[in-house]
UniProtKB/TrEMBL annotation:
It is an enzyme of class 1 (oxidoreductase). It comes from Pannonibacter tanglangensis. Its EC number is 1.14.13.83. Residues 26-91 form the Nitrite/Sulfite reductase ferredoxin-like domain. This is Precorrin-3B synthase.
């Protein structure tokens, strides 16, 4: 199985734009221009999705992505077609947010198990930021999370600024955090909703003062903290958005796009079937997922079969749920390996790694688009070979670099070792440590 063409090929160095591709400023990729949409509506009816799929074929190459943060990407555009796509989307009422990314959980307002519906606060914040106009000069990739909790909460989503709903003495407060997920962010204060917008604007002004590239991590949390002591953060577990999920009494069917991508033809077939089954809405969700609403429980199996036929992941136990990958050589000019072939290799050669205890990141190059944060274990395409990165980002210093032909035997040795142990893959890899892991995969033991 070939996971990579000769590595020192004509792959382009990854483009680090420091900005997110939009309809107005699409990004050059290996298959044309890519535009990322942050839909204003939390979800679309199947008919609207069908229109989207058709537009992706008319103006692009008919490939659509759902990103790790739950945004939609349309690929294979040209300079001319991107403009026409923007017009056609607007005509169809499929509007996108522009400017500062303010994210809420995909089921906000529908999930009765959430602490608070974050959407009104998110809207108030959007309006306040817009009213500030040129007074705020923010980094294009700056992200604010407004997480009211619930089943599919955003506690694991890293953000520059976050507002996490917490219950204190019967009241709901918003915990303001800087640079991290709900556990790792630096907590600054817990405020009532009426004070939250002003508090965030203050942070955005502080970022503006630091310069247009400043991110949440550049602010000094000690100088900004309003409370000397705050309760420790609470981990709020959130299941993978795959399979039949019940969110506060609401039944939802989650599907994941393998490699975060679906072809318009497959999407159309799936949506046609969903319409027949009575689906009312399909929502984008973090983790390269789509959530289907309105399917009656007795038709859930039919809906799952439809999704499976369209190539979507419907089983929470599917080992591919633990792999995060970009298109690599198959769809990006910077790709040095083929993550899809690598996935097949992992599933067949090293299933012990896919026990769910760790996240594997397969990255076509060191840019790490599919998973910008650190991953438990990563395989990254580099000009010198396939880099094995432990607990780091795709471009971080590797534990070892392997020739493509050596990867299969190396994974096989690792699999044998993990199978012999009784602990999870994550625990055993931690126990091995970088030196032990390097020796094992290089066969130097
Ligand atoms: S990480 Fe993947 S998608 Fe991003 S630039 Fe590299 S090869 Fe392309």
């Amino acid at each position: 199985m070939s996971v990579a063409q000769p590595l020192a090929t004509a792959a382009r160095p990854p483009e680090r734009r420091g900005a997110c591709p939009t309809l107005a400023t699409p990004m050059e990729t290996g298959d044309g221009l890519l535009a990322r949409l942050r839909p204003v509506a939390p979800g679309y009816a199947p008919k609207a999705w069908l229109r989207l799929a058709t537009l992706s074929q008319t103006h692009g190459n008919g490939l659509l992505d759902v990103t790790a943060r739950g945004n939609l990407q349309i690929r294979g555009l040209t300079r001319n077609s991107a403009g026409q796509l923007a017009q056609d989307l607007a005509d169809a009422g499929l509007h996108s947010h522009a400017g500062l990314a303010i994210e809420t959980p995909p089921l906000a307002g529908l999930d009765s198990s959430e602490i608070a519906d974050g959407r009104p606060l998110a809207e108030a914040l959007r309006a306040a930021v817009m009213a500030e106009g040129e007074a705020l000069r923010l980094a294009p990739k700056l992200a604010v999370v407004v997480d009211g909790g619930g089943l599919l909460n955003l506690s694991g989503q890293v953000a520059d600024i976050r507002l996490d709903a917490v219950r204190r003495d019967g009241a709901v407060l918003w915990r303001i955090g800087l640079a991290g997920d709900a556990l790792s962010a630096h907590a600054l204060a817990e405020v009532p909703q009426s004070e939250a917008v002003a508090a965030v604007l203050q942070l955005l002004s502080a970022l503006t003062a630091l310069g247009p590239a400043a991110r949440g991590r550049d602010l000094d949390p000690a100088a900004l903290a309003r409370s000397a002591t705050l309760p420790p953060p609470q981990a709020i577990p959130s299941p993978a958005p795959v399979g039949v999920l019940t969110a506060g009494g609401l039944a939802v069917q989650g599907v994941r796009l393998p490699f975060g991508r679906i072809a318009a033809e497959a999407l159309v077939t799936w949506l046609d079937g969903l319409e027949r089954l009575g689906a009312s809405e399909v929502r984008l969700a973090p983790g390269h997922a789509l959530l289907v609403l309105g399917i009656a429980p007795e038709r859930a199996n039919e809906a799952a079969a439809l999704a499976q036929a369209a190539g979507l992941i419907v089983d929470p136990a599917d080992p591919r749920n633990h792999i995060v990958a970009c298109p690599g050589q198959r769809g990006c000019g910077s790709g040095l390996i083929d993550p899809r072939a690598l996935t097949d290799l992992l599933v067949t050669t090293a299933p012990a790694l896919l026990d769910g205890s760790l996240t594997l990141h397969l990255s076509g190059c060191g840019k790490g688009c599919a998973h910008p944060a650190a991953a438990s274990l990563g395989l990254t395409g580099t000009p010198g070979g396939i880099a094995l990165v432990v607990g780091g980002r795709a471009g971080d210093a590797p534990v070892a670099v392997l020739a493509p032909a050596d990867l299969g035997p190396a994974l096989s040795r690792l699999n044998t070792r993990l199978r012999a142990g009784s602990d999870s893959a994550a625990t055993q890899i931690t126990q091995l440590g970088p030196d032990g892991l390097r020796a094992l995969i290089k066969d130097e033991t």
